[in-house]
Amino acid sequence: MDAEPTESGRQATALVGALVAAGLRRVVVSPGSRSTPLALACAEREELLLRVILDERSAAFYALGLADRRREPVALVCTSGSAPAHWLPAVIEASYRRVPLLLLSADRPPELRECGAGQTIDQLPLFGPYTRWRVDAVAPPGEEGDRYAASLGTRAWRAARGPVPGPVHLNLPYREPFLPVPGVPRSALPPDPSPEPAWGGATRTDVDWGEVRAAGPGWIVAGCAQAPDPHAWAEGLFRVSDVLGWPVLADVTSPARFALGASGRVVTHYEAIVGRGEEALGRDGLLPRALLQVGPQPTAKPLRQLLARLDLPRWQWSPDPALLDPSRQPLTWIGGDPSDPGELPDSPPPDPSYRERWRAADRVARTRVEAALRELPEDSEPGLYPVLAECLPEGGQLFLASSQPVRDAERFLPDVRAGGVRVFSNRGANGIDGLVSTAAGLADGGPPTLAVLGDLAFLHDAGGLRALAEVDGSLTFVIPANGGGRIFDHLPVRGRTRHYERLFLTPQEVDLPGLCAAHGIAARIVRGREELRRELREFPAGGRVLVYPCDGEGDRERRAAILRG
Questions:
Q1: What CATH architecture is 7-181?
Q2: Is the pLDDT of residue 489 over 80?
Q3: What is the pTM for the complete model shown?
């Protein structure tokens, strides 16, 4: 005879059933006792692909990568106490980058709180302002509790998807006994939610493009974006560029950077161009009279500094009106995104020569930068990027650490427009935590993925190496071993204190291949670009690590020399 269903089991099953009905297909679980009903309810659903990752911090970044690539919410499950606190860094990143996560934290019921019960803290405030919706759930008995739990699932799914996607936190109290976890009669669940637009679907843009054009000529400055349909996003932006006659200065993480049709519209070497100063830009007829900022600002610091100094009409084009300009200059917000640019003028731009001048300047800068890269020694980090562009597989993914690698790729990664490559980076909060795990989530079930992480960023998430065992796909890490946190070499603190190396550069002596071997991960040291090129001719299944020793000290001056010309 079947055991009598428990209240906790029924409610967990009702919640998971509603999430599955809404569209949930991926769950990342960290083991624990209080979350037993949730974990078992997830495991019983054939529709769900379930990954088990011991470390909650690694699990959260893994889910972030999965959600970012799949463009749909991914659920996290963990037990009570300090366990969900380890999700916080990934939740912050997801919030700032509009990536939807469903945070399902198990908890003690109210009668076991603030009375000395073990593994009990105040969990609801853990994520502060970084959730789109949060609720400290209750647990009414019987069918009322089933319906309540199911309604939470339906609402949480919709809140995570938008209109501004992001994390949603359900803090779920479960009383013992936890077993068995039965099925819940379909009659206890709410109706399936009505069809909704895909996450990040653009609201229709409502703007007078003729008015914007009259303020120019200007720049379209396109920052980091992960569009549901990158092709449609880029096509819409290119149509606007054609109508305005303005060049697109596209960040390496923008869908426009490597899209087909970018030629003649997209400028990739703008850092080398704007670095020559305002006087040179004015002399060459390249200064703007207006700015159209699409999403957040790009990575390149010289460009951001110049944008802050320019006093001219500005428009910000983004799905929500959050301020994305650190200079806080007056601007006009345009709702929506380039996937639907709205009504465009049918007349040609008043000054088509302006974009052509930028195109010519970009050709000159590209020729100079590519020639300089060919002359670099074999142990130079910037010299990696032409090899990476050459070896990236068609339709593959490139994940860049948000420190030195994303900056080097911004400057030195050649065009890879023909292969449909997508570029990712945790540029929401710009931290280096959880990058191994994020890359693993991106690669899981996806196309071949190449991740470029510095040695410190790799070590920072060494615990994420365990997550590689969960990856169903191909993931190759290239680790420029440059002797520490070389991003600090470009800051004023370098050379200003005798404590620089100890407090900032922090060089490490960890045997990276040995560390990987301890986790069962294939790893080897690769010396020189030709050897790297041979290694990247194939992208085998599973995870592997290629450590590329670099001359970090010499590269500091080499980067500056390339950009100076």
A1: 3-Layer(aba) Sandwich (3.40)
A2: no
A3: 0.87
